Amino acid sequence: MPEDRLLERLEKLEGIVETTVQMLPPLIQDLSRRIDGLRGEMQGMEAKLEGRIQQAEAKLQGQIQQVEAKLEERIQQVEAKLQGQIQQVETKLEGRIQQVEAKLEGQIQEVKNRLESLRQEVKAEINTAFNKTMLLFTLIGVALALFSLLR
Question: Residue 1 carries which DSSP code?
Answer without folding.
Answer: -
